[in-house]
Design brief:
4-stranded antiparallel β-sheet, 17% strand, 5-stranded mixed β-sheet, flat, 383 residues, Immunoglobulin-like
Length: 383
């Protein structure tokens, strides 16, 4: 064996220190020994990682949720606004047609109760009313109703159709009964047409207004204006067969050019202060307390044996700044009937001063005794 071989084999397995292993625990730091039991095997506690990315992710998710919620609220709000505007626009359009129809009904009642009205004048006016009523039906049919209000809108159209048919029926019946001899039969035929006008008011109230209010409540929509009313025939008393017979007789008499037959007259039955209910006297001074509810009620009586129409009643109270003048009209009154006419006054009156409250009732055609058509009542207004 050579020296080189000896050098190669000359090593010691245990004579050199081996490098420390990474799994060996490090030596405890110097110091006094701790009196504690040895630790058992377990996981090492590692320091927490960086939380910033996680917090950013949570913030982004929260922001995204907030944006989605706000977007949903905005979309729902826009839908609610559109629905409210849609319903409100519809109610505005229907109210416009309904108001024109109600005004037409008032014009019809005024025409029928016009003294000395001739048949040819009535026929011309009724022709215009028929055209207006038919136009109103077409205007209502052209309105685009929201889906939920479709059935209610059909009720409004039906009411307007009844009105157009009723006015057309009046025009035809007046023409067909022009040469009739029996006013009772004519009155019954005319009243049958008036029944259509009365029915139209019920249809509008029940089939349109009530249904519309139910839909608006169910849909939880606040609309302006509210579902409108439309009353065509406010003076229901003219729709009876007796009233229409008297109207027919008066028109026939005017057509003949003669003076009204029978006894005609109107007068003041009483004048009463409200709310006290005290009757005024033409001879004795009456003291009245001035309040916001102060009013006068005038009882107007048909003193003849004939139906009267279009009676004008006027109340006048003198004031330094100008008199208070209020005028009311009684559409129709039957023989012997007393109709109360209310005049609201309020509190704008001169206190502690005697005045004369004057009441005038215009004489009717053919009236000869007008002594009871005008009275003055001495009154002191007190605070």
């Amino acid at each position: 064996m050579t020296t080189r071989d000896e050098d190669i084999l000359d090593f010691d397995f245990f004579g050199e220190d081996e490098p420390p292993s990474w799994e060996e625990p490090s030596e405890p730091p110097p110091g006094p020994p701790r009196d504690r039991p040895p630790r058992g095997p377990g996981r090492r506690m590692r320091p927490p990682g960086n939380l910033a990315p996680l917090l950013r992710l949570v913030a982004l998710i929260s922001l995204a949720i907030l944006i989605v919620v706000l977007l949903v609220v905005w979309v729902e709000g826009c839908a609610t606004d559109r629905k409210r505007d849609r319903y409100s626009d519809y109610m505005t359009e229907v109210a416009s047609v309904g108001n024109r129809s109600a005004n037409l009904g008032q014009e019809l009642a005024t025409t029928l109760t016009t003294p000395a009205l001739k048949l040819e004048d009535l026929d011309a006016k009724l022709g215009g009313y028929v055209q207006s009523a038919e136009n109103q039906v077409e205007q209502a049919e052209a309105i685009d109703a929201p889906g939920a209000l479709h059935n209610a809108h059909e009720g409004a159209i039906e009411a307007l159709i009844y009105r157009a048919n009723g006015v057309r029926g009046l025009k035809t019946t007046f023409q067909e009964t022009a040469d009739a001899a029996d006013s009772t039969v004519a009155g019954e035929q005319l009243a049958a047409q008036m029944d259509r006008l009365l029915a139209s008011d019920v249809i509008w109230a029940d089939s349109f207004k009530a249904r519309s209010e139910e839909v608006v409540s169910t849909e939880d929509v606040v609309v302006t204006p509210e579902p409108p009313t439309s009353e065509f025939l406010t003076a229901d008393e003219i729709a009876t067969p007796e009233s229409m017979a008297a109207i027919w007789q008066r028109i026939q008499g005017a057509a003949d050019g003669g003076t009204p037959s029978g006894s005609h007259g109107s007068g003041i039955s009483y004048v009463r202060a409200l709310p006290s209910g005290e009757d005024l006297s033409t001879d004795t001074e009456t003291t009245l307390f001035v309040t916001d509810q102060l009013a006068f009620e005038v009882g107007v009586e048909d003193t003849g044996d004939s139906q009267e129409v279009g009676i004008v009643v006027t109340l006048t109270i003198p004031k330094d700044t100008g008199p208070i003048v209020i005028e009311k009209t009684i559409p129709i009154i039957e023989p012997g009937e007393i109709i109360p006419v209310r005049f609201p006054i309020g509190s704008e009156l001169p206190p502690f001063e005697q005045v004369s409250v004057k009441v005038d009732v215009d004489p009717v055609q053919g009236e000869t005794n007008t002594a009871n058509n005008t009275y003055e009542y001495p009154v002191i207004f007190s605070l």
